[in-house]
Design a protein that fits this description.
alpha/beta; 2 domains; nine-stranded parallel β-sheet; 14 helices; 45% helix; 13% strand
C-alpha cells in the first residue's frame, strides 16, 4: 500500500488509529516497536492550533523512530483548516490527515469531525483547500455516514478522491452508532471494489486479532487495516496480529511497565501515572486474576511508580502459576 509517491507501507499494513488522550508520542513509539506500520497523532484542533495554544502545539511533536507518522487535524472552517494544515506541515510529518469521523459530542455537534457528514459540500471544500495548500500527501478518515438513513460513503469516497486525497480510511459505523454495535464492513468493501476508486482504502472497526484482519482483507480487499480501541493498553497487538503469536503474560506486563516509565520520564511521576491510567484501565494483563476488580482499583488509585509496577508483576506471577 502506497500513500503518495514516497510512503510505501508494504502489503496488508496495520495502522494505529488516532485517538484523543491515547496516541501520544510514547504510545505511538510503543506500537511501532511491536510492528505498527504507520501511526497517527491525537487529533489536533485547527482552531486551537491557529491560536497558538501550547498544549495543542505539543501534539505536533514527532520522534524520528515513529515514522511514517501522520498528524490529524479537525475543524469546521476552510480558512482555519488551511492555516492549521500549513502549521502542521512545518512539524514535518509524513502525512496530513483530516478528521471527518470523530463522533464525540463536543466535536461532531459543532460541525467538525463526523459533523461534516451533515454538510458534505463543506467537507469537500475543506479537503480540497487543504490538499492544495500543502505539499505533503493528505488523507481523510471518516465514517459510513451520519446515521442509518444517511450512509453516503460510496459516493463520498469518489468525491473525496476527486479532491486529491492520497488515501481514505473508513470506520464501519455511522456517527449515530458512536462505537455501539458491530462495525459494518459491507460498504467499506463496496468502496474498495468500486472500479472508479484508485486511491488506497483502509478499513477500521472491530479488528482485534490476526483472524479478524485476515477475514476483513479476504471479504473486502482493503489495502490496509487501522486498529483503534483494541490497541489501548495492548500495544503488542500489532505483533500478535501480524505474526499470529500470543505474547506471554510477562512480555505483556513489561510492555505496560515500559509505557508507564516512558510517560514518567516524559512528564514526571504523577503526570506520567495519570497519563498512563487509560492504558492501565484497559490492559488485559490483570484480567485473569481472581481478585481482578480489587487489584485494578488499587492500581488505578496508586500514585507511585514502584507500587504500580509491583502490582502488575505480582498479577503476572499469579497468572503464570495457573499455567
Amino acid at each position: 500500500m502506497k500513500i503518495g509517491d514516497k510512503i510505501d507501507l508494504g502489503d496488508r499494513p496495520l495502522l494505529l488509529a488516532p485517538m484523543e488522550d491515547v496516541t501520544d508520542g510514547t504510545f505511538r513509539l510503543a506500537c511501532k516497536r511491536y510492528g505498527a506500520d504507520m501511526v497517527t497523532t491525537e487529533f489536533v484542533s485547527a482552531d486551537a492550533l491557529t491560536r497558538g495554544v501550547k498544549k495543542t502545539e505539543r501534539k505536533l511533536q514527532i520522534d524520528s523512530r515513529e515514522r511514517p507518522c501522520a498528524i490529524q487535524i479537525y475543524g469546521k472552517d476552510v480558512e482555519t483548516m488551511v492555516e492549521a494544515a500549513k502549521i502542521a506541515e512545518e512539524a514535518c510529518p509524513d502525512v496530513i490527515d483530516i478528521n471527518c469521523g470523530c463522533p464525540v459530542k463536543k466535536v461532531a455537534t459543532k460541525g467538525a469531525g463526523a459533523g461534516l457528514l451533515r454538510d458534505i459540500p463543506l467537507m469537500l471544500k475543506i479537503v480540497s483547500a487543504v490538499v492544495k495548500s500543502v505539499k505533503l500527501p493528505v488523507t481523510v478518515k471518516t465514517r459510513l455516514g451520519w446515521n442509518e438513513e444517511g450512509k453516503v460513503i460510496v459516493e463520498l469516497a469518489e468525491q473525496l478522491q476527486d479532491c486529491g486525497i492520497a488515501a481514505l480510511t473508513i470506520h464501519g459505523r455511522t456517527r449515530a452508532q458512536m462505537y455501539l454495535g458491530e462495525a459494518d464492513w459491507t460498504l467499506i468493501g463496496e468502496v474498495k471494489n468500486n472500479p472508479r476508486i484508485k486511491i488506497p482504502i483502509v478499513g477500521n472497526g472491530d479488528v482485534r486479532s490476526k483472524e479478524d484482519a485476515e477475514r476483513r482483507y479476504a471479504e473486502t480487499g482493503v489495502d490496509g487495516i487501522m486498529v483503534g480501541r483494541a490497541a489501548v493498553g495492548a500495544p503488542w497487538i500489532f505483533k500478535e496480529m501480524k505474526e499470529g503469536v500470543t505474547l506471554t503474560e510477562s512480555e505483556k506486563a513489561e510492555a505496560i511497565i515500559n509505557l508507564l516509565r516512558d510517560n514518567i520520564k516524559e512528564a514526571g511521576e504523577m503526570s506520567g501515572i495519570l497519563h498512563t491510567r487509560r492504558h492501565l484501565a484497559a490492559t488485559p494483563v490483570l484480567k485473569g486474576l481472581y481478585n481482578f476488580r480489587e487489584t485494578k482499583i488499587r492500581m488505578l488509585r496508586s500514585t507511585s511508580e514502584e507500587e504500580i509496577v509491583s502490582i502488575i508483576r505480582e498479577a503476572t506471577r499469579q497468572e503464570e502459576k495457573k499455567d
